[in-house]
């Protein structure tokens, strides 16, 4: 019988089926152990393409504009990071830029790079390195936190000026939902299942 | 005593990257046969690294809350906002649900994170056998909610980018924002360097 080891507490479990049909938890620490990984590559690619389009829209159009006494000013997603940079806070600018622009982009681009060849039963060159890059940027993609931060900022500004939501505000909200769906459908376990199936 | 079979006792390694279970090899730097990530029985220097990052975060928590995170400069006056006064501004402007949200994300979560990680770290160091499952779950919860503390940093970033109507109103960044962002980043790293499996080590 195959043995699987819990990554959270090191407890060894004997398992009758290597491919669980439902979610299983560690008997000792209750961490998630197995998930039914039977999603389709096509659905993941479709979601990645949708995310890419939404990402481009989010960066091409302004998030929001404010108008007060006849003067209008708008801000884009990159503009949020640039504001910090212009005030000599390069560290904060880099943090915002990486977590809202670089992170989502690398996540979408690396998934497309990995999944499109898999669909044709091929492996992308440097697959393992790209996969590790994906695992590295994933915990640093904070687009959903940014959206909530934007709401807080708009509530504060609304007391002094008129707030005009831009195209990117809506595309960013959709990007947040698409990325969440994409992340849950492309867990490491699921990805390596696809790789194994493509070799069979 | 009847010890449960663990990866270590059976000579098995689990890849933290792709969760494959692998037979431990007697080579200097074993790698996962599936994803080629480095394999190790436990994260190296986990307790020391987590303790160091956590200490830095705890020290920076003070300036993060005392220093102004932003200045609002208008022709009439100059307002300094700390994290807490930002919450009060939201409360007075009548949007209390948002004020509560910011209070939880910016004040409660970072503090809860520093305290919980310290408890988990200390008990792992002592190899305490009590409440292991609860501590394990506490750690995972902290890891999950930690990111939401970035809320205020993003709110400030948008205010700085938007409110630049020269001679009318102008928002400037304060050093408190940098300290606050550093607390969030350091605690995120502290959670990542901590090896959860140390909570389950047999008592000495």
Describe the structure.
The complex is a heterodimer of chains A (200) and B (204). In chain A, strand 1 and strand 2 form a beta hairpin. Chain A contains seven helices and seven strands. In chain A, the strands form three sheets. In chain A, strands 6-5-7 form a three-stranded antiparallel sheet. In chain A, strands 1-2 form a two-stranded antiparallel sheet. Helix content of chain A is 58%, strand content 12%. Chain A is elongated, with a radius of gyration of 21 Å. In chain B, the strands form two sheets. In chain B, strands 4-3-6-5 form a four-stranded antiparallel sheet. Chain B has a two-stranded antiparallel ribbon with strand order 1-2. Chain B is built from seven helices and six strands. The radius of gyration of chain B is 22 Å and the shape is elongated. Chain B starts with 6 loop residues before the first helix and ends in an 11-residue tail after the last helix. By secondary structure, chain B is of the alpha+beta class. Chain B folds into two domains: 41 residues; 156 residues, Butyryl-CoA Dehydrogenase, subunit A, domain 3. The chains are: A alpha+beta (200), B alpha+beta (204).
Write the layout of secondary structure elements.
The complex is a heterodimer of chains A (200) and B (204).
Chain A: E1 3-5, E2 12-14, E3 24-25, E4 32-34, H1 41-60, E5 64-68, E6 71-75, H2 77-86, H3 90-119, H4 127-137, H5 143-157, E7 162-165, H6 167-185, H7 188-199
Antiparallel strand pairs in A: 1-2, 3-4, 5-6, 5-7
Chain B: H1 7-10, E1 12-14, E2 21-23, H2 46-66, E3 70-74, E4 78-81, H3 83-92, H4 96-126, H5 132-145, H6 151-162, E5 164-165, E6 169-173, H7 175-193
Antiparallel strand pairs in B: 1-2, 3-4, 3-6, 5-6
Helix pairs in contact in B: 2-4, 2-7, 3-4, 4-5, 4-7
State the strand order across the main sheet of chain A.
Answer: 6-5-7
**Count of discrete structural domains of chain A:** 2
Tell me the major beta sheet of chain B.
4 strands, antiparallel
Radius of gyration of chain B: 22 Å
Largest interface pair:
A-B, 64 and 66 residues
Number of strands of chain B: 6
Would you tell me the overall average pLDDT of chain B? Answer: 90
Strand content of chain B: 5-15%
Question: How many strand units of chain A?
Answer: 7
Helical content class of chain A: 55-70%
Question: What percentage of residues of chain B falls in helices of 4 or more residues?
Answer: 40-55%
């Amino acid at each position: 019988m195959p043995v699987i080891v819990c990554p959270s507490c090191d407890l060894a479990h004997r398992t009758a089926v290597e491919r669980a049909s439902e979610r299983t938890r560690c008997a000792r620490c209750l961490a998630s152990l197995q998930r039914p990984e039977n999603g389709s590559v096509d659905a993941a690619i479709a979601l990645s393409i949708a995310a890419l389009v939404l990402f481009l829209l989010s960066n091409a159009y302004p998030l929001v504009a404010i108008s007060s006494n006849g003067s209008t000013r708008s801000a884009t997603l990159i503009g949020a990071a640039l504001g910090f940079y212009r005030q000599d806070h390069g560290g904060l600018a880099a943090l915002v830029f990486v977590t809202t622009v670089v992170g989502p982009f690398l996540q979408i681009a690396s998934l497309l790079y990995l999944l499109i060849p898999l669909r044709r039963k091929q492996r992308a060159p440097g697959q393992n390195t790209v996969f590790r890059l994906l695992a590295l940027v994933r915990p640093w993609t904070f687009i959903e936190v940014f959206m909530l931060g934007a709401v807080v900022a708009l509530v504060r500004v609304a007391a002094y000026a008129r707030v005009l939501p831009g195209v990117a505000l809506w595309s960013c909200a959709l990007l947040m939902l698409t990325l969440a769906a994409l992340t849950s459908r492309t867990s490491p376990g699921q990805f390596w299942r696809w790789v194994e199936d493509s070799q069979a | 005593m009847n010890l449960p079979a663990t990866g270590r006792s059976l000579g098995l390694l689990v890849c933290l990257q792709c969760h494959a279970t692998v037979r431990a090899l007697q080579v200097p730097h074993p790698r996962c046969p599936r994803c080629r990530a480095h394999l190790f029985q436990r994260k190296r220097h986990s307790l020391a690294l987590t303790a160091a990052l956590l200490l830095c975060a705890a020290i920076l928590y003070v300036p993060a809350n005392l220093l102004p995170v932003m200045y609002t400069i208008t022709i009439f006056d100059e307002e300094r906002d700390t994290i807490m006064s930002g919450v009060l501004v939201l409360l007075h402007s009548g949007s209390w649900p948002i004020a509560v949200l910011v209070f939880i994300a910016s004040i409660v979560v970072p503090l809860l994170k520093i305290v919980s990680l310290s408890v988990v770290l200390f008990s792992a160091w002592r190899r305490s056998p009590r409440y292991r499952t609860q501590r394990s779950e506490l750690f995972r919860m902290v890891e999950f909610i930690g990111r939401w503390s970035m809320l205020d940093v993003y709110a400030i970033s948008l205010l700085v980018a938007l409110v630049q109507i020269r001679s009318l109103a102008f928002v400037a960044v304060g050093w408190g924002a940098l300290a606050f962002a550093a607390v969030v980043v350091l605690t995120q790293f502290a959670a990542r360097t901590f090896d959860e499996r140390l909570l389950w080590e047999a008592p000495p």
